[in-house]
Amino acid sequence: MTGLRWVQTAAVVLAIGLWVACGDYYRPVANPIIPNPPNPAFPHVIVVISGNGANNPGSGTTIDVSGDIAISAATLGLQPVHAALVSSATKVYAANRAENTVSAFSPSSPTPVITISLPAGSAPSFVASTEATNVYVANSASNTVAVISMAGNVLINTIAVGVQPVAMAELPNGQKLYVANQGSGSGNGSVSSINTIDQTLNPPIQAQSPATGNAVWVSPVWVASRSDGQTLFVLDSGAGTVSAIDTFTDAIVGSATVGVGADFLLYDPILNRVYVTNPTTSKVIALDASTNALTPLPSYAVANPVSVAALPDGSRVYVATATVSGAGAAQTVSSSVTVLNAQDMSLKTTVPLTSVNVRCATRTWSELFMASAADSSRVYVGNCDAGNTAILRTSNDTLLTSVAAPLSAQTPPNGGTPLPQNPVFVLAGP
Predict the structure, then answer these.
(1) pLDDT digits (tens, 9 = 90+) for 16-54
(2) Nearest to 345 by CA among 380, 308, 382
(3) % of the chain at pLDDT higher than 70
(4) C-alpha distances in angstroms, 305 versus 97, 297, 301, 313, 338?
(5) Which of 26, 130, 338, 379 is the most exposed place for a label (fewest CB within 10 A)?
(6) pLDDT category, 89, cuts 50, 70, 90?
């Protein structure tokens, strides 16, 4: 009987449990958590500055890295030559050399474009800024640096520097601006140091020539700050040197020989190197920038190097080259990109670009300016003569496509469809 009672009791308990479970008992409900939608803005951006002759407005074209297409084009001033991407890549300031103005616009929208006037005869040639307050413009014809307030987009000051300023670099902390003054003849170049806090000129930076021992700059053409802001690198084309300047004392603390005629310098913050192109000696020179000794690393011999880009992942270095042949109306320029392994500067491959009629008069870095995407997926080559920007896919180092510049307003000599504008500078956003 005892066993039967236990069975009966268990059956009653089970029945009560089932009755309770079928009543108004709370059951947790699994609601899906909807994540924040992705930012509709493109993750990486490239801005290409293009000229349109001396009498027609140029343009600023924004390329979406993920889509390999141009998504907007802003109308700039006459003969834009250089630009800076500032304020967390939300603003572009472009120097319009032929009309003494600066154009300010957003890379994500072609309008509005704000025009900032500079004094007559300025001939602006370079723009730089690492701060959120002001942007600086090198005026190559008036030997000054213009200071533009980003808050009001107005000119607030001009600072006298050396003869023909052509390049600038502001320290990462925004407290000093350095200016490479090319000069107009042998031995009258200089490097200016500006205190950006009160916009005053610091004492002159004295040069020391390794060859002669004379305290003279010949023709500085490029400056770049090391990522820690403690050292500035100056390329003197006429002296054939790269100098390391202590930014605390503004004294030269090291130098390396790169050959007379070297005319382009790139600082690679990932590998802490300086790359220099020398078309005169047909070399790309690499220097160890981690110390002021600027110890030479393996260089690479390549004909007619124009500019350099380094991948942010530190794996490869890309060198744009251009070879001109023929004469007169039949003169052509053939361009290509040499891909080097960054570890030892050995050749990985060569990517041919175009062979076209010569359209651009200058044979400098503006002929084939390069930039790499922040995600290392693409390298962009602004081809002045071809009127397009070549896009290289870095996964296999091949030419993926080309994005044509906006059409020129100039009528071709023989009529027909206008040619594209001439890309002269490429900016890579974060």
Answers:
(1) 444 444 444 333 333 433 333 333 444 588 999 999 988
(2) 308
(3) 87
(4) 25, 18, 9, 23, 9
(5) 26
(6) confident
